[in-house]
Design goal:
Layout lengths: L10 H19 L6 H16 L3 E8 L4 E8 L13 E3 L5 H4 L8 E4 L2 H7 L8 E10 L2 E11 L6 H32 L9 H12 L7 E8 L2 H8 L1 H18 L4 E6 L2 E5 L6 H16 L2 E3 L2 E3 L3 E8 L6 H17 L4 E4 L2 H21 L4 E10 L5 E12 L3 E3 L5 H6 L3 H22 L6 E5 L2 H4 L4 H11 L7 E6 H6 L1 H14 L2 E7 L6 H6 L4 E4 L1 H4 L6 H17 L2 E5 L4 H10 L3 E3 L9 H8 L7 H8 L1
Parallel strand pairs: 12-13, 15-17, 17-18, 18-19, 19-20, 20-21, 21-22
Antiparallel strand pairs: 1-2, 1-6, 2-3, 4-5, 5-6, 7-9, 7-12, 8-9, 10-11, 14-15, 14-22, 15-16
Helix pairs in contact: 1-2, 1-5, 7-8, 8-9, 13-15, 15-17
The chain binds ligand C2E and calcium ion (2 copies).
One calcium ion binds next to β19.
Length: 624
């Protein structure tokens, strides 16, 4: 080892060194990870010039590669064909001085080995060179090395060595800052759990592909692991996380040329690298399904999960990135709704349905404020006398473009967009206004009004007060109104619903359970509920004269109603034989196309003024 220390130099050299160190420190302060390589090269160049040496290099220790990696050097070596052997030098290949791993604490003076020199290039010859290697240290770790190569013997004064150490310290700080910055950038661009690229990387790439001038179709596959919750609950969240990491790894391996991204939770998206039509994207989905299917060993258990997969394809210019992502997620949700372990392709039909839904959603708010909603009324008939004993108010929407809409196309949207309460208030108000008007025009009219109520209305705090106020406003007695609720609404939040029902009872308002037989309310729950009527679902009624299963169900519901002292109404009566069977079974009241379809109020007035007889079904049908 050549360790030649010269005595301290004259005063101006000392100042010179201080100026150099301060200068370099200043230069390094403003450096970012983007400008670091050039800045380091500039520093090395100044060192070469100042110390009049042959070469300087800066290397960092890479713990993952277990190697010393070149960061910057001066002077640049002549370009050579093939990979640069100095770029990454594994420690096991003798990079001890270059990477200074073996002598981490001290400055090392060492002869440059011939083979090392050969790769340093022709700027220096292969004999009689020494290197001064100054470690870059943070705490107890050596993170790299600042190297100075000099031809022949050169004495180094302690001040010069200190100056090199000071520069090495600045470079260490820079290294720490750049690493932190790079780590932050990595975290921002990657999912922390799986290390996959983050969602915004997907969006950027998707936008780029969908803005491309070529009309190549872009294929997306959305993968949602089925029932991951069960893994989290039974084996713990760490096991769930490990499962997701395995899925990420398998997808990355299976889709090497594609972009695999985790959206969060149990959802992944694959952006296919090659242009893909729907069929090809579907093939990719099958591969994804297979790669997830193999069991994963977690905590001594083999855990197998399936996936709900969606596929969507779009041609540039016809669909935005967010929209395509929504489409593929929707297809995946459809797979989940079908019970999971399924692939669903987003089709033109889904696209049309989507467009309708979005349009309805946008206009419904105005409609609910009373602009465009209207009520049709469907009578309820006493099966023995064929008299109209009640009417059900059924909401319609005169859509500005799509014409008259039936409730099935907008009630669900109202419920999912918090508009159900407002819609319900409008219906109640309008139906009560109408009943009051009919009663004024026909003194003594014995007609009960039935109004459908959304589940959300039943758990709204002031629902009972609203009903009371509306009845009061139109001077209607409580028993003239019957609210129809579904079993589903009741089971949802039994305690609150019970409170509401008791409040309604105090007003004398009646309550019917709609679509009875389709829900799962138990006898016990039924006993607790202060309801007055069961309305047998039309699904069991319309074929009751022909289907023995339906007959059995209808029979048992009627029996149940009688046992509990409840009224019973059969809805969906479409023909005389069905009406006859119901009458024979002791069902007092019915509703259905046989008697009348839901009709506008003027039409109902005509029906009210007629005596219902056997032929009325035809009249009702004509009215529509
Ligand atoms: P629902 O309460 O079961 O209403 C009865 C539905 O059955 C009505 O459909 C009616 O037209 C139809 N119907 C009546 N008789 C027959 C028949 O003989 N055969 C067949 N196949 N169908 C028959 P509509 O008017 O389309 O209403 C559908 C659903 O929309 C209603 O089912 C109800 O759940 C909901 N709905 C209607 N109006 C309102 C409302 O004001 N508020 C709330 N929350 N829901 C409403
Ligand atoms: Ca109803
Ligand atoms: Ca019903």
């Amino acid at each position: 080892m050549h360790l030649t220390l010269a005595p301290s130099g004259p005063g101006d050299v000392k100042r010179d060194l201080e100026v150099l160190v301060t200068d370099l420190a200043g230069q390094l302060l403003a450096v970012t990870s983007m400008t670091a390589p050039q800045a380091c090269t500039a520093v090395l160049r100044e060192l070469v010039e100042h110390f009049d040496v042959d070469a300087c290099y800066l290397r960092r220790n890479d713990t993952v590669l277990d190697a010393s990696v070149l960061v910057a050097e001066w002077p640049p070596r002549a370009a050579r064909a093939g990979p640069d052997p100095m770029q990454v030098v594994p420690f096991r290949d003798g990079a001890t001085v270059l990477g200074i791993r073996a002598h981490p604490r001290e400055v090392v003076f060492a002869p440059v080995r011939a083979e090392t020199y050969r790769v340093l290039g022709q700027a220096v010859s292969s004999n009689g060179h020494t290197t001064v290697a100054v470690p870059l240290r943070t705490g107890s770790a050596t993170v790299g090395v600042l190297g100075v190569v000099v031809r022949g013997e050169r004495s180094w004064s302690p001040r010069e060595i200190h100056a090199l150490q000071a520069v090495a310290a600045f470079l260490t700080h820079l290294h720490a800052r750049v690493s932190a910055e790079e780590r932050l950038r990595f975290l921002a661009d990657h999912d922390e759990l799986t290390g996959l690229p983050a969602q915004h990387v997907l969006l950027t790439e998707l936008r780029r592909r969908l803005a491309a001038p070529e009309q190549h179709p872009v294929g997306l596959v959305h993968v949602a692991v089925d029932r991951l919750k069960v893994v989290n609950h039974s084996l713990g969240h760490a096991a769930g996380d490990e499962f997701l990491r395995v899925v990420a790894r398998r997808l990355t391996e299976a889709f090497a040329g594609d972009l695999v991204v985790r959206l969060g939770g149990d959802e992944f998206v694959l952006l296919l690298g090659e242009p893909a039509r729907l069929g090809e994207a579907e093939q990719a989905a099958v591969r994804a399904q297979r790669s997830i299917a193999a069991p994963v060993a977690l905590k001594m258990e083999n855990v197998g999960r399936t996936a709900s997969i969606g596929v969507a394809v779009a041609v540039p210019g016809r669909c935005g990135a967010t929209e395509l992502l929504n489409r593929v997620a929707q297809a995946s949700t459809t797979s989940k709704e079908r019970g999971g372990n399924t692939i669903t392709c987003y089709t033109e039909q889904m696209h049309t349905e989507d467009a309708v839904r979005t349009d309805i959603e946008m206009r419904l708010r105005t409609a609910v404020q009373g602009h465009g909603l209207l009520l049709h009324y469907q009578p309820e008939i006493d099966l023995r006398t064929r008299e109209v004993v009640g009417v059900e108010a059924l909401v319609r929407w005169q859509h500005p473009v799509r014409g008259l809409l039936q409730p099935d196309s907008f009630i669900g949207i109202a419920e999912s967009t918090n508009l159900a309460g407002e819609l319900g208030r409008w219906v109640l108000q309008e139906a009560c206004r109408q009943l009051a008007a009919w009663r004024r025009a026909r003194p003594g009219l014995a007609l009960q009004l039935r109004v459908n109520v959304s589940p959300v209305q039943l758990i709204t705090a002031d629902f009972v007060e609203t009903v009371a106020a509306v009845l009061d406003e139109h001077d209607l007695a409580g028993p003239l109104l019957c609210l129809e609720i579904t079993e589903h609404a009741v089971i949802h939040d039994l305690a609150t619903v019970l409170q509401t029902l008791r409040g309604l009872k105090r007003l004398g308002v009646q309550v019917a359970i709609d679509d009875f037989g389709t829900g799962r309310s138990s006898l016990d729950q039924l006993k607790q509920l202060p309801v007055d009527t069961l309305k047998i679902d039309r699904g069991f009624v319309h074929n009751v004269d022909a289907d023995p299963n339906d007959l059995a169900i209808v029979k048992s519901i009627i029996g149940l109603a009688q046992a509990f002292g409840l009224d019973v109404v059969a809805e969906g009566v479409e023909n005389e034989p069905a009406a006859e069977v119901l009458r024979a079974l002791g069902c007092p009241t019915a509703q259905g196309y046989l008697f009348s379809r839901p009709v506008p109020p003027e039409e109902l007035e005509r029906l009210l003024d007629t005596t219902f007889a056997a032929g009325l079904g035809a009249a009702g049908r004509e009215a529509c």
